[in-house]
Specification:
The chain is mostly helical. It contains 2 helices and no strands. Helix 1 packs across helix 2.
Length: 53
Amino acid sequence: MEHHWAAAWLAEAATDADRQGGPGMLRIVLIVMIVGCALTGWFLLRGYRRKDD
């Protein structure tokens, strides 16, 4: 069986958030949201970089 480090990290982050209270999970959600928005913007804007000669 393979070890999935991302799944283990997410499970550990969720249990740590329960010990810390609500703000820990909120912080994780906000970071994921910001990274997702940046990646979406990069994906959408990379098409404008093409030059039509």
